[in-house]
Amino acid sequence: MGKWVYTFGDGSAEGDASQRDLLGGKGANLAEMASLGLPVPPGMTITTEVCTYFYEHDRNYPPELEAEVNAALDKIAASTGRTFGDPKMPLLVSVRSGARISMPGMMDTVLNLGLNDDTVGALAENAGDERFAVDSYRRFIQMYGDVVLGVEMRNFDEHLEALKEEKGIELDTELTADDWRGLIEVYKELVLKETGKPFPQDPKDQLWGAIGAVFGSWRNDRAITYRRLHQIPERWGTAVTVQAMVFGNMGDTSATGVAFTRNPSTGEKQLYGEFLINAQGEDVVAGIRTPQDITERARIEAGSERPSLERSLPDAFKQFREVCDKLEGHYRDVQDLEFTIERGKLWMLQTRAGKRTAKAALKIAVDMVDEGLISEDEAVKRIEPNSLDQLLHPMIDPKAKTDQFAKALPASPGAASGEIVFTSEEAERLAASGRPCILCRIETSPEDISGMHAAGGIFTTRGGMTSHAAVVARGMGKPCVSGAGGVKIDYAKGTISSNGVTLKAGDKITIDGGTGEVFVGEVPMLKPELSGDFQRLMGWADGTRRMRVRTNADTPHDAKTAREFGAEGIGLCRTEHMFFDPARIMAMREMILADDTDGRRAALDKLLPMQREDFTQLFEIMAGLPVTIRLLDPPLHEFIPHTDEEISDVARALGADPEKLKNRARMLAEFNPMLGHRGVRLAVSYPEIAEMQARAIFEAAIAAAQKTGAPVVPEVMVPLVGLKSELEFVKKRIDATAKAVSEETGQTFTYQVGTMVELPRAALNADKIAEQAEFFSFGTNDLTQTTFGISRDDAGVFLGSYLREAIIDVDPFVSLDTEGVGELIRIGAERGRATRPDIKLGICGEHGGDPASIKFCETVKLDYVSCSPFRVPIARLAAAQAALG
Amino acid sequence: MGKWVYTFGDGSAEGDASQRDLLGGKGANLAEMASLGLPVPPGMTITTEVCTYFYEHDRNYPPELEAEVNAALDKIAASTGRTFGDPKMPLLVSVRSGARISMPGMMDTVLNLGLNDDTVGALAENAGDERFAVDSYRRFIQMYGDVVLGVEMRNFDEHLEALKEEKGIELDTELTADDWRGLIEVYKELVLKETGKPFPQDPKDQLWGAIGAVFGSWRNDRAITYRRLHQIPERWGTAVTVQAMVFGNMGDTSATGVAFTRNPSTGEKQLYGEFLINAQGEDVVAGIRTPQDITERARIEAGSERPSLERSLPDAFKQFREVCDKLEGHYRDVQDLEFTIERGKLWMLQTRAGKRTAKAALKIAVDMVDEGLISEDEAVKRIEPNSLDQLLHPMIDPKAKTDQFAKALPASPGAASGEIVFTSEEAERLAASGRPCILCRIETSPEDISGMHAAGGIFTTRGGMTSHAAVVARGMGKPCVSGAGGVKIDYAKGTISSNGVTLKAGDKITIDGGTGEVFVGEVPMLKPELSGDFQRLMGWADGTRRMRVRTNADTPHDAKTAREFGAEGIGLCRTEHMFFDPARIMAMREMILADDTDGRRAALDKLLPMQREDFTQLFEIMAGLPVTIRLLDPPLHEFIPHTDEEISDVARALGADPEKLKNRARMLAEFNPMLGHRGVRLAVSYPEIAEMQARAIFEAAIAAAQKTGAPVVPEVMVPLVGLKSELEFVKKRIDATAKAVSEETGQTFTYQVGTMVELPRAALNADKIAEQAEFFSFGTNDLTQTTFGISRDDAGVFLGSYLREAIIDVDPFVSLDTEGVGELIRIGAERGRATRPDIKLGICGEHGGDPASIKFCETVKLDYVSCSPFRVPIARLAAAQAALG
């Protein structure tokens, strides 16, 4: 059996800061501070392993626990000279939760434990303040009653309010010791009535009750929700810290406060914090009294009249500043501190790494490198890659007044304002006349691409974080809010309604894709700025990472954006998006309707110059860099209209028989399009399509090279390959096309042919496929769909319950499933390299921009990751962190 | 470099019968016969490796080949005393193809090669028959012109016909030597005109032309199609055998014939065959003259007047019978022979294992065991498992006159006649009044199950071998013909049309699911009979195999059939089929419509007694055997109607609001149902469904055990598991239900909980999942869909071109893809056993009844295979063969 309890205090401790997993963040850092000789009230931490044991044994404790707790209490007694229930020197303690990662406000806390009808007198005597003592007792009954005994807080509040009304007063502070004493009796009766038992008087009983309540709170609804949102595993559990009480509310030489060693919002190197004289910690947070600034400088800057701690309690302040410096130097990071001053004496109650904005994080990291506190590598590791997203997009001005219309999923970050439009056509029309708009749709489909491009942002009422709208918007770097279930769009009436508010087309709204909020009207915004700190840190990251970072880009606009963000090539250019353009879709439909190869070739001949022009532009932007182009992937029915009316329109435009078009649509319809006639299967059925695309690519490569002088190496990617023979079939035709183009033009050029590994069969047979493929790009979107057997379009319905029931920790479409999909990548990389040691390996798909997934990619030594343009900086940083291990 | 040419003749040979891969079947057996000292005209075989070289080198030969061929010709010359072009003793040869597996009639043959304007005279002299010599020469020009020079046969025929017309005669035999001589000149002119070159006179040139033509014919259209149909790989190639000619047409002491050492249709131990006096081999096959029986016994039985070989040429017959006995004894199998008697001397031209009917194969194998010729194990290996299918179903009487209506895919074997019906309801109505019917549908869906049960057979115009209709029909053992593309069904008019013939509901048709034929009217049939030979052979198989054979059965009828066929339990009981029953689907829909858990439970309470009764019946039939029951698998929308009209009807029946039902249908609709909200995902969302099913299973197990005294061990199978945590979630509820049932009834029972491994992720994580699973059943239908990323319902469109282009050899839904799906099974089995060495492993799904797949299952040591009832004998035999290796 392990050790269940760790003590700390008096300049020493059994644990240290490295033991967060066992002692929780709070317990580990209290131990560390105690060992550093800082003033920490003595206490003990009951480990997270007890929490695990507790839930595995039907809420019972390990048999050894009681003895260990008692021994620790003896130690606290020895240090403080106080024992539980002692009529002269009673020990009072706080009981707090502490998980590996802070979950603020999610779990329960009990203060002042140890007070009872007897010890309250001793507290009064010790403190020389009777009112303080009885106030503490009634707070304790209230808190313990609520947290441990399950008597709702509002029951206590009712009695308190009644008393104040009876006395005709408004503030608690006006109540006397006698008033509190009377209320204590009322409270005790309330507890008896509600629980059938008297309020426990034995401090030990109180303690065990509180410990059980804290462990129990690990599984309260709030905590479960919080963990789900923050992807904190259930099994981690919480520790419980029991610590001798100190009081910031023992008169005017007592105080309590919170502070950061640097400004968490700007990163400026200034002590930053707030405090209250004669108060308990809860009061600072509760916001009933306005807190005071800690430093004189901050007070002056804020123009405040209330005295600073620096002025009010200069000795304690001086000591506190020394503690701050010591802790920052020790942890080599900004600290977020809680402290209490009891009658002039400083006590440290908590320290932890301070949460900060992305901007502050960059400044702090770069400053600390300049200060010699940390290395460049450490600076790189300090920045949460996803946090960079904040810096790349416009933001709602935090000071702006807003009128919330709806709140849904933050599907693609950034904010945008504009007129409401309900159709792609309308979006394009407004964009053409320079009027910003927000495209509002129940859901989007590939036909909406041009409208999504035209709009400033997208808002959908259906679909999750990985819906079509969300994925495409992130790809474009457009703000998107999706899945607003409660919002109703009526296309016919041209209205959108939420909570009784109805807006119509042309009304202005603002969406915040970083929070999922939608506001009525235009809301002021802040422009993104990439500071010098950003550039320096990214430079260090680029010097560190091993993997290249490419981008997924289908348009010159995306390609340019990505280059500005540091992309080193294109990892995925999806050619089908090019065909949805209204000018082109007609030729595409003509091809689909053609009766034979000749008819198809005729239609393809119309598409060829357009495709060539697309690629020429991309190749010019990516001069000298590699560009991976995926051959046509989606099933042909995606290009054909579905309703009878649309079919008639299209047939008219094509000069075709509507019945024929209808028939073709019926023939192309599929039960499971995801697993249907698409990818390489199209190229096998209609090799002329692949030939046209290959020709466009090679002709463009020549044209662009002549302009820029820096040729790209086009990588022709055949999608959805499962068999070597499939790739062989298509590669033969691509090679023949290359030969033909080279002969016709008299130009030579370099290219590669490879495949997207997005089927389990491809990964398993990577050794054979690598005989034909010069590169693999792991298409983890589809690989996730096939490995899990989950349709991304349909998964929303049940993935919710999976997360809720903790069957999965994280949506596998958001972060790579390393045990399943990752295992296939590992197998694919290994077998591919066995055949062709220098095979180029990359990842495209959503995971290429996800830091956790990028970390995995480093472990299997992929050559590059590819992600949407706005995630390129994130990927660069994440790749650097992954390389640092 | 290897050796390219193998000679044989004169009692010795360079090759032998084991070298089929190198020498082709024909060449290997000629070599073997020569070594046995049998009379074989001397010759040489150019190996299949030359064929491979030929195609890999742009139709050029290895440089050493010419010298090797010349050396072999010298050897033939030494043996026969004849050389090419010799004016006295010219050598004439035949040039024939010979693949590893016989491809009758698919490739080209040239006879009489070596004849030219000079040697024809020597032939006449040698034979003492001028007409014979010039007839041989004109045959040679005709055959060589057609096969080697590309002059179409009908050009020659036109001249021949013109000549006969001119002479006013009908039979070739009436033409004189002079007539032939004249025709030879006409033919030579024709060749000159068509090819621009004179007919080659140099026998060596003739030979190389013929060799090239035979190798070239490996890739003619007929051969390609044949290989595709018979799954013969392209890369095998053909050998070419060049052999000295012998002549069965040198007068009345010459003859040619074919024979089987036993009757290939009944298996009876009697020499069986046909011959013609004064004829070449081609004449026997061509059917212009009616051949004679070989034995006197056969002649008498057939009531023929034409003399037998036994009578006509008794010496040659005696020698031939000895050769037959020697070859059968040597090969220890029935031989299919070709022979020629040249002026009383017997020459053997071919021997190979004789093709035989399933019935004959059984009798021959069992007889040969009794004769001590082969062992029981060998007998087991001799039977092609799939051939047993012929014995289990009624067959169209081969002697019946038929009127073909259509021909499509042989989707499920057996024949059936009945009235045409177009709806399930109609099928049930007719069945209820005892009228056999054939259900004709464009395609079938799960709602047609009851109609398919009621009908005697199913005929669909869409869908392939693995369509819903085909799979379900095979499961039921019902004949089915599917995918009749050219046939039109008009539901509104109640008609079905093919090639201008229109039939209507009520008209009678007959379908043959073994051939894909559909006939107008009722065709007489033969009943299946399982002979004593069958029982004995299956007994040997059962004694040999390691794997158990279970069945996939959902109904008592299927379960009983399977037991009769020797099933040793149920490997897959699909519970959803039980819910499509009209009486139950309403309760099912009520459940789907329920707003909350309570509503669902109320509806499930109605289903519970029905489910329990289903299982009780199955458990009684399977007394003492294991039964695997799969929990509800399909997405719920399969139980809901789709058209507005049907929705209204159902809503009325349920007393529900049609709008609500419509809404629910809309919400349940999925883009990719195969990857949607189904399997274990349903059990996670609605645990109460799994609980109801588990309860029904356990209560039924108790009830059945009380009746039969031989309890089954129910194996509760959770489908579509990808994560250990999913299974854990459901298993907890199943275990709790078992505990509850046990407590309520006071009965104990044994059960297991396991999962279907049908997702790549499950196979890859089998080690973790096995912590929760007591058994795995590899669900290879879905595993194939996910591993390949191919929807079975949609694959028909492109799998055709895949087979045509030789991108795949065989439909992976028919025979297990061992490299992809099989790799996952191997990984799954290995990792599952690593965690739980005694984990029970099986396979369900279509592949469980496919011999090639069963062979694979033996290599990974699965414990059992499970297949549809009618495939149980096939699986038993295939499992035995697999065990024999």
TrEMBL record, chains A, B:
Keyword annotations of the record? ATP-binding, Kinase, Magnesium, Metal-binding, Nucleotide-binding, Pyruvate, Transferase
Q: Enumerate the spans annotated as PEP-utilising enzyme C-terminal domain.
A: 531-882
Question: What residues sit in the active site?
Answer: H468, C844
Q: What is this protein called?
A: Pyruvate, phosphate dikinase
- PROSITE patterns named among the record's database cross-references: PEP_ENZYMES_2 (PS00742), PEP_ENZYMES_PHOS_SITE (PS00370)
Q: Drop me one GO molecular function for this one.
A: kinase activity
Q: Residues that bind Mg(2+), according to the entry?
A: E758, D782
Catalysed reactions, as listed in the record:
pyruvate + phosphate + ATP = phosphoenolpyruvate + AMP + diphosphate + H(+)
Recorded hits in InterPro entries, A to Z, give:
ATP_grasp_subdomain_1, PEP-util_enz_mobile_dom, PEP_util_AS, PEP_util_C, PEP_util_CS, Phosphohistidine_dom_sf, PPDK_AMP/ATP-bd, Pyruvate_phosphate_dikinase
- Family matches, as Pfam families: PEP-utilizers, PEP-utilizers_C, PPDK_N
